[in-house]
Amino acid sequence: MADTPPTVPVSFSEFEPVTTAAWQERIRRDLKGADPAELEWRLPDGLIVQPFYHREALEALGTSPLPQIRTGAAGNAWLNVPTHFVGASDTGRAFIDRAAEAIANGADGAHFELTDATAFDLTYLHERLPLDTAYVGYTIRTAPGAFVKRLLATGATVLRGFLRCDPVTNHAPDLHHQLAELREAISLTHDMPEFRSLALNGAFFGNRGGTATQQIAFALAAASAYLSSLPTGALSVAEVAAAMQVNVAVNPSYFLEIAKLRAFRKLWATLLCAYGLPVEAAGQLRIFASSATWSQTTLDPYTNLLRVTTETMAAVLGGADAVSVAPFDKLFHEPNDFSDRLARNLSVILREESHLDLVTDPAAGSYYLETLTDQLAQEAWALFQRIEAQGGMPSALGLMMQELLVVAQQQFKDIATGEKVVVGTNRFQDPNETFDYNPKKLLRSREFDATRAAYPTEVLRLATALHFQRREKKHKRAAVVLLGPHTNQMILESFLRLLPAEERAALDARTPDGKLSVLFSSPEAATLMYATPDQFGLFARVVCHVSKEDHDFIPPHLLTADMATMQEAIALFGFEEFTVQGYSTEDVLARLQGR
């Protein structure tokens, strides 16, 4: 057998170094007079991404960036942890069986989001997934201390995984009691290094449209609140920090999401240093990344597979310790073997075929990613300091939610007007798309997620399709579909873009603020209307025959009734018609749907 040749350092000495100035000159020449600034990418955070980066970018950072290394039990690998949503009054046995089957087929653990933690059968869980060895995460709403006691009562002597009960982020009304429960959960598990009893719900901000800067800053603000409020004489700051994990949502903006996770780790060290903890303590941080609900769609749903693939790769390359990939059809289908297998196998392919677990921090040293990581860290830290100056969390939560609303509304608008492309929803749509789900049932469901980026655009398309279907079949009943806040303004702007410029100027107008947009669909015609949230709530109670005393009532997005009842209720609660001068609602909707 021939001798193995000696390794030789990689060298490109035959190529002359090219300076930044030389690259800029070449770009200007190739653009043939166009402004190079047109190649810049402006992020929602206000940051500007340049068309290229050079060695000087690293030099501008001041210090040489160091690789970020995972220090968990899995080493440089990440855990593949599917999430299972368990409804109210459900013992969860069917989901526990699904989780056990998933682990037998490539998953590394399970995460259960529990609507009713008291009903969840922990004894059965311990039988199927021994808690001493299985990695299991839990998301619950209240009483984390009592839940940990129940876990230990199964006979498990040690736990692996995490417990997410974040009363600060979730704005729990009994915060003082919940903090006492968290102290108990941390104390009960402080000798279990593979179990994090204080997982922060950073995904809350990512799944409501928050920018990368906001997600980092708001999660840091929640962590700071716990580091300030939880320690007592019996519980140190170091023990609170060691119990923490951060759950984040990862969206499809590939490089930005890689930089987001890396920037968070940098700032975590800064935060712990501010609380007097050594640099080594920051290395204990665990990041649990989930594919974002914010980016999921019901239209052309197989495009969700492309999104979650990008999100998973970004999470892995950004340094997540565990990743949960959502099935592509979770918005409209019950859990099923096909979509679960596709979601589970994404991590398997990236690890077993792409071997991404064999590379330590592949982003390290990249001119672009190191610069973007540093920019995000600086902007997020500045925002975090502003939140702390406002009293920190939970005092500043109202301000934070308002800032989230602003950026979310801008994204809704950008999607509705086509400025931001969502393949299959607002670009490259299939006009003849058929649904393998019932749009009526989906819009009536209380579980239908209306917080997603594509919701205002897709609900209009679904409602319009249902209207034209109702008209063709000459249905006698009428329907009202809740389109959401500001949707009529988005409809107006989208419609204007389809008109000649001379017509556009004459029709340009704004729609009322603070009102919900609804579509009234009758056998004869469709009418876009406005209602205040109170008007719509009262209207929905009348149509659904629900009393005012039922405080748990959540109006569905689709309401149907006979024509007389619907018209009377609309008149009674003062819905206002939305009009575009010279065009009927039918004209507007038909034009938007390409009819």
List the helices and strands and how they pair.
Elements: H1 20-31, E1 41-42, E2 48-49, H2 55-59, E3 79-80, E4 83-86, H3 93-104, E5 109-114, H4 122-128, E6 135-139, H5 144-153, E7 160-164, H6 175-189, E8 195-196, E9 198-201, H7 203-206, H8 212-229, H9 237-242, E10 244-250, H10 254-274, H11 279-282, E11 287-291, H12 303-318, E12 322-324, H13 337-352, H14 367-389, H15 397-416, H16 439-444, H17 455-472, E13 477-485, H18 487-497, H19 501-507, E14 516-521, E15 526-531, H20 533-544, E16 558-562, H21 563-572, E17 576-577, H22 585-592
Parallel strand pairs: 3-12, 4-5, 5-6, 6-7, 7-8, 9-10, 10-11, 11-12
Antiparallel strand pairs: 1-2, 13-14, 13-16, 14-15, 15-17
Polypeptide structure, described:
This protein is α/β, with parallel strands linked by helices and 595 residues long. The chain has 22 helices and 17 strands. The strands form four sheets. Strands 3-12-11-10-9 form a five-stranded parallel sheet. It has a five-stranded parallel sheet with strand order 4-5-6-7-8. A five-stranded antiparallel sheet has the order 16-13-14-15-17, sandwiched between helices. The longest helix is centred in the middle third of the chain and has 23 residues, at 367-389. The radius of gyration is 26 Å and the shape is globular. It starts with 19 loop residues before the first helix and ends with a helix. The mean pLDDT is 89.
**Order of strands across the main sheet:** 3-12-11-10-9
**C-alpha termini separation:** 71 Å
Q: Major β-sheet, in short?
A: 5 strands, parallel
Count of DSSP strands: 17
SS summary, helix count: 22
* Residue share in β-strands: 5-15%
- What structural class should be given to the helix and strand makeup? alpha/beta
Compute the gyration radius: what is it?
A: 26 Å
How would you state the average pLDDT, rounded? 89
Global shape: globular
List low-pLDDT spans: none
Q: Level of helix content?
A: 40-55%
